[in-house]
Write a structure and sequence with these properties.
Radius of gyration of chain B: 24 Å
Number of helices of chain B: 13
Oligomer: heterodimer
Helix content of chain B: over 70%
Order of helices and strands of chain A: HHHHHHHHHHH
Strand content of chain A: under 5%
Distance between the termini of chain A: 15 Å
Order of helices and strands of chain B: HHHHHHHHHHHHH
Number of helices of chain A: 11
Structural class of chain A: mainly alpha
């Protein structure tokens, strides 16, 4: 609990972090309560009327080519994007922290082997790793998408945790715990982990932004979230032919991506600065 | 010298492991590489068996792998499935120049503007302009390149009709046009995709440069240069900036994968006939040898890029001992 509170204070102290946290909180609230009173994005209302209606009283952000309410789809897209990002990052941070801890604490050939693998995995850009994995799948259900995004995202985290653990393990309090006969598990969980939480929180937050962008990109390529489930990248893909005639169809989801990722990165940046200067 | 040898050896090992990873990732994911071919028109079983044999899908995984690795080491990336067995090498060779032109231009724009902006921000740090420029770089970094490309196309290409929105050349250009006309035509077509590709990373380059420059401005040698009465220009660029160069070289290795990944989207949006478009088409047809070939080429680029960045760092910083 102390850790959560400390992290929160670091974010709130920074002006950018505060702005990011507020935007993000607003987005999460809208994403969780708005669907109850917005029109259902899967239903196709007003089939009799012309599609691609401009923004107006009935549809605040207009309608798309199938005459679905754009605002409602953007909000539902937020739920999908945030859920996918949360799942994928939870997975990648857990794996990254475990592997980093193992490599940093075990040292020797385990460390060499693991870091060699991480180096080579980082030599292939993440987008290509993802493309290789999803390109020949016939269907890409959401859980698979989350796992795929998660298993390609832990390399940087493991390096970060490893470096921190290597720095910490030479410090007196870890030495003291070892001398007192604490076993490895206890040292890892009680002494090392709490001290990596700061940098890890910063990296985790920034990773959420990356995953939202990657998911949007994959969905734009038709390899991410599958229609009719609304996703921001998929909406931009569908809106591509109507850019000049109905700009709201692609502006709305695009701005949603930028705003969300910007808010996440502002928070991440605040954490990063806070923990780097050691004021936390 | 031993340092150099060890660094090169480690780069080679990294590349080989990356290749291995690409191969096994492709094979452990569920899905039949040939499924797409028989999707639209049913194929007789003999034809499928023939294809499986031709693409070496029947032999055990380990022998497939040694075969594949042997091909890579001999510089052969295999054959495309969707494009009737054309070699991936020739497909890539055909598209490489366009990608190098676009990527090179984007890198040039990125470092020119990013370094200049970062130095400017460091000199005016804490000012209102510095603050908003920092927010702006974060915002641009948060913008998906494909969406940015679409918006720029719409604003500059369609609404204002300032620049062409696709392809490398004007198809209506007469065959007799002279070199200058061809060059300016290429330049006009290059502008939008290059801006789109570089914008996202210009902000990030500026952030790194700003941080490195702020540290460098605190150095004793900079204070000495100031007290010697050198011009501000000489102090900033000759004394401070040189000390802030190291982190920028490391960035070069970081940007390469981002630029290549970005080019998949940007080239496709602007119909730029490069590797990105090739990868995009290969995704559409699930042509996995082409995707793998592109991934392997890109990882070779990334490994080489970080090797070059390390070497340059070593050469430029006498403290590390060349």
């Amino acid at each position: 609990m102390n850790l959560v509170w400390g992290t929160w204070r670091v974010v709130w102290r920074d002006r950018g972090g505060r702005a990011g946290a507020l935007i993000l909180a607003t987005l999460i609230v809208i994403a969780s309560i708005a669907p109850s009173f917005l029109p259902n994005p899967r239903a196709m209302p007003d089939l009799g009327r012309a599609s691609l209606q401009p923004p107006g009283p009935g549809h605040w952000l207009g309608t798309d080519r199938d005459n679905r309410d754009v605002l409602s789809r953007v909000v539902h897209g937020a739920r999908v994007s945030l859920a996918v990002a949360a799942g994928a990052v939870a997975l990648s941070v857990t794996v990254g922290a475990l592997i980093g801890m193992l490599a940093g604490y075990a040292g020797g050939w385990v460390d060499t082997l693991l870091m060699r693998l991480v180096d080579s995995a980082m030599a292939v850009p993440r987008l290509f790793l993802l493309l290789i994995m999803v390109a020949i799948m016939e269907r890409i259900p959401l859980p698979v998408l989350i796992v795929v995004l998660g298993v390609t995202g832990w390399f940087g985290t493991s390096r970060l945790v490893r470096a921190e653990v290597q720095r910490l393990r030479t410090l007196d309090f870890v030495r003291a715990a070892e001398a007192l006969g604490a076993n490895r598990r206890r040292i890892a969980l009680r002494h090392l982990l709490p001290n990596v939480v700061g940098p890890l929180a910063a990296a985790t937050t920034l990773a959420v932004g990356d995953v939202i962008l990657l998911e949007a990109g994959l969905s734009f390529l038709g390899l991410g979230v599958q229609p009719p489930t609304p996703s921001w990248g998929g909406m931009i893909l569908e809106a591509q032919p109507y850019l000049a005639t109905a700009p709201w169809t692609s502006l709305a989801p695009g701005i949603a991506v930028v705003l969300t990722v910007l808010a996440v990165n502002l928070v991440g940046e605040a954490l990063h600065q806070g923990y780097i200067t050691g004021s936390a | 010298m031993t340092w150099l040898l060890r660094r090169v050896a480690s780069a080679v090992v990294t590349f080989l492991l990356a290749t291995t990873l690409v191969f096994f990732l492709m094979r452990i994911t569920p899905g039949d590489p040939l499924a797409r071919l028989s999707e639209d028109r049913p194929m007789p079983p003999e034809a499928i068996a023939d294809l499986r044999a031709r693409y070496d899908l029947n032999s055990p995984l380990t022998s497939q792998f040694t075969h594949f690795l042997g091909g890579i080491l001999g510089g052969n990336l295999g054959a495309s499935i969707a494009q009737g067995g054309r070699s991936v090498n020739s497909l890539i060779a055909e598209r490489l120049p366009a990608t190098l032109l676009l990527g090179g231009t984007a890198l040039l724009l990125n470092f020119t503007f990013g370094i200049w902006l970062g130095v400017w921000q460091a000199r005016h740090r804490g000012s209102r302009a510095d603050h908003w420029l920092s927010v702006l770089s974060l915002a641009v970094y948060a913008t998906p390149s494909f969406w940015l490309g679409l918006v720029l196309t719409w604003l500059l290409g369609v609404e204002l009709r300032l620049l062409p929105t696709g392809f490398m050349h004007d198809p209506l250009l007469p065959a007799t046009a002279n070199a200058w006309v061809r060059f300016t035509d290429l330049l006009r077509h290059l502008l939008l995709p290059a801006i789109t590709l570089s914008l996202a990373t210009i902000g990030a380059t500026a952030r790194y440069q700003r941080a490195a420059m702020i540290d460098a401005l605190e150095l004793g040698c900079v204070r000495t240069a100031r007290t010697k009465g050198l011009s501000e220009r000489a102090v900033i660029w000759r004394h401070a900036w040189r000390n802030a160069l190291g982190p920028m070289l490391a960035l070069f290795g970081l940007w390469l994968p981002l630029l290549v990944a970005g080019s998949v989207f940007v080239e496709a949006i602007f119909s730029w006939p490069g590797l990105g478009t090739l990868a995009w088409e290969a995704i559409g047809t699930r042509d996995y040898p082409v995707i793998m070939g592109a991934a392997i080429l890109v990882s070779a680029l990334v490994v080489a890029g970080s090797l070059i960045a390390d070497l340059l760092h070593r050469l430029l910083d006498p403290r590390l001992g060349a």
